[in-house]
Every structure is written in structure tokens, then in C-alpha cells.
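Quick one: C-alpha cells for this chain, please?
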Amino acid sequence: MSQLQLIPEVQPGESFMSLAQRLAKANFHQTLQTFINRKGSHFDYRSNLNYYQEKNRWNSEIVNILKAQNYENVDNLTLNQFDGLLFGGSSTLLQRRQHYYQSKVKFCPHCVMEANYHRLVWDVSMVGVCLRHDCFLIENCNGCNRVIRMNDLIGGGCICGVNYADICEGEKPNEDILSAQRIIQGFIADEINEVVTEEGITLTGKEYFNGLDLLSKLLDGLPFANMKFADFTVTLGEANYSLIRGDKRNLLMIIYLSTVAHHLLMSPNKNFAAVINEVEINRSSNRQMRRKRELFDKIICLGTFAAHKKIYIDFHNTVNLEFARMRYILQPEEFRFCSLLAARKILKCDDNILKKLGESGVLEFMSRKVGRRKLTLVEIESVEKYAKVREEFITSIEVAKWLGVPGSIIRKLSDLKLLLIEHGPGKDVFGRRLFHPSAINRLLKELEELCVKEISDSDQSNWVPFDFKLLKEMHYHSNFASVLKAVISGNIRCCCTTEVRRFADVKLSRAELMNYIGSKKTNDKRKGVYKCKL
């Protein structure tokens, strides 16, 4: 295309399609279709193509026209620049339908009166208020209720005769809506980099919009009549964030959802418990319950939702305790129980671990059948007590490093009952051995009490350290456990000069140790076991 005579300047914050439409009309073309001389569906030239897609032929041809007229930085006029902030990367088809206007447009009549062009930020779905003029954006003609198209907005009015700049101002947004819009538009305009919640958690732009997305999905399908926790009301059916069955959303619903999600994210102590009650207890949502629970799992696992996690756990504890007080279902002495969910969160484990703890007698369970449902609760005191003890448990490898022996020796000592275990083979259904530090200290204390406290310098040569490597040179490695057993039974004398903190701090009588090893050799020779040299 040759150089045009009238080239309008790019206005601050102007959108890609707005510039293209103004360029066409400035050069006396009625529509973009005649401007680029392409025949096709009327929907194409009337639609909003501010999200650039290479496979869209209209996008490519309009970009070529703009570049031919020496327009620079065309990418700054498209919605693609917001993908990283809103989605953390490239967007999907559903995300674009949820977060961008791609056919109709919305606008502020005051801004259009001041300068007749379309602002790109208006095409972000969550932007529903003009903060400069404190008014709602408009997406339908107030004369005929038609949706507003880009070419009509740039043209100045609707086919019914209404001038868009003359539309009277309606209801003012309240402070709840304005406070949410300030944060949303502040991030989009790159005016703020982070925001701090009431609990003191700092959120970046990506974390903030990820939180809005998760909470909006949680509200999805809830009847608006049940959202009594909000400070403003709307006459709508149900929230439709997922656009299920292709249903359309209007601007008021988008504003409502983003505002409620914002306040749930920033101030969870106010209304998050009410959302949990509607979703999980009343089950008001018309979406699958499994997906809602998956959302709750995602929310309480994120570090930015620490306050939400606490509210979620406390709510289920409270609900189950209140439910336990209903009529004849439970006895008064059984009010000391909490839900399985609360127990899982406290112990940070799954249902299989809870079942094993119940089988081993660590936790006390109580079950009642209420109608067709089975209610299973866990004693709160036993859960909290075990949680404190469990934090101190150590593994076989940690015990081995403590005592200065291999892990295989620790397993042998536990099999011989010389070292008591809390969980593991031989005691319960757990496959991994876990020890409490008190068991190791008890064993070392027992050795210290058996030791002779005072030995003369001349007797030093008569004692050898109770060291694993030394015993391995004298005999095969599995003999260590049997030597320890002989020491505890009094067959081998021992001594120490300092506090016993590991096996090497103990010294054994050389003569009694050699006699014990010699008797073992004789027995092993009869069995045909190979011996290492002394």
C-alpha cells in the first residue's frame, strides 16, 4: 500500500484496532474491509482483534498496513504484552476468552468525550471501572442495548442514533470495587510492582493474578444470591468464570467476581470461611465437587496462601465439633475429636499414614454413621501430642552418624531389641525405621553406668576403644551387635574417662574382648565361616 495522506498519531494507551480504525476513517473509508480491499465475512472487520495471532490473516494485513505508514512499536498496541503478567506465560484459548474482550468493546464515555479513541486496557476483562472519572465502563448501548463494536465506537455512535460520548453517567462504583480496581489496574499499567496483604505477605503481580484466578475458579458456579458475604448485591444468576456451555458473561459479573476474589485474597479473615461453607458444606456450586477440592488443595499448598490454609483447617475443625454436638449423634465425652482433614494438615501426612497410626494405637479414632454417610474423627490431643513427638524422630542413617557405625548395625541393634524404635519392621506396619533421640540417650546412659570410672595410666594398654573399624579388623562386621550385647549382659567389662556420647567413647577390656572373640571364632570355625586375621 502506498503512503497515505492523512496519518493520525498514536494516542497514549491506544489499542491496535483503534489506530487501524482511525487510520481507515481518516482516509475516508467506511470500514477496514474496504480499507484493505479484502472481501470476506462482515464479522472480521467489526470484531476486536487487539490480541495478535499470526494465523489470523486480518491481524497480519493490518500490521503490514501500519508498518507501511511508518508506525513503530506496534507490539505495544496489542494485548499480548499482558500474557506474562496475567497467566505467567503464553495464554490458552480459554484464558483469552476469560480475560480479554475479543469481539465487543467497553469504554468510558467521559474519556471518549475528551479524546475519541479506544484505550487498550479497556479490553482486559477485569478492568471494569474508569479510575480517572470514578464510573463504570459501558459495554452496551443504552438506547438499543446492542453490544458496542470497535468500528461503531471510533465512528462515534450506535446505528440507533445514540452518541456514545453523550451517554449519561449511571451508578457510581463503591469503595470495595474501587480499591480492587486500583490494584488490578496498577499492576496492568506497571504503576505498582507488589502489594502487601493484611497478613503481611508480599505478592508480585504474577502471584496476585494467580491468586485471583484460583479464587475466581473457587467462586465459579456459586449462585450470586448465596454470596451474602459481599458488601454489594447484583441481580445475576450464578458466577460463570469458566464459561461453561459457552455462556456469556456480562461486565457486571466480571467486576463482581474480580472484586470478591481480590478481597478474599487480600483479607481472607473476613469472608474466606463463608466461601468454604458455601462450597464444601452447603455445596451450592453447580460445578464438580472434585474440582473444587483440588482448588482448595492448590490454595492451601501455596506459601502466599498461608492465612487461607489456617482458616481452612480451623473451619473444618469447628464445623466437625459443632456437628458432633448435634442431638444424639455423639456423646458429650466425644467432643474432643477433630476431623480427618485437620489431622492430615497437622501431621502433614495422608490417609494411609493415619490408618497405620490408628492400627499401631498411636491415634484414637471414633466413627459414627449419620444417615448414609460415615463420620470419622480423630482425638485432638493424641494428634497434637504425636505431632510434637514426630518432629523429633530421626532415621537409621541419622542414628548411625550419631553413634559412629554403619546403618546396617543400627538395623541389627533394633532387631536385637538393644535399640528401641518408634516405627518400623518388627513393631508396626511402617516400612521405615524411626527412632526417638531418648532411646539413643538411654542406651548410651546404660553403657556409661556399666563403665569403670577410674583407670590408672599403666592399665591403658589393657583397654581398647569400642570402635566399629577396630572390631571389623578383629572379626567380621556383624560381631559389633553381639559384642554390645555381651557388654550390656556383663560378659565384657568396659570403662570411660568422659561422658559417653557415642560408642567410641567406651573402652572394652582387651583380655575379655579377645576371649569373647576367640570363643566366637571356635564356634564359627565349626560352621565353616571365614575369619579375618587379628
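The longest strand covers residues 373-379.
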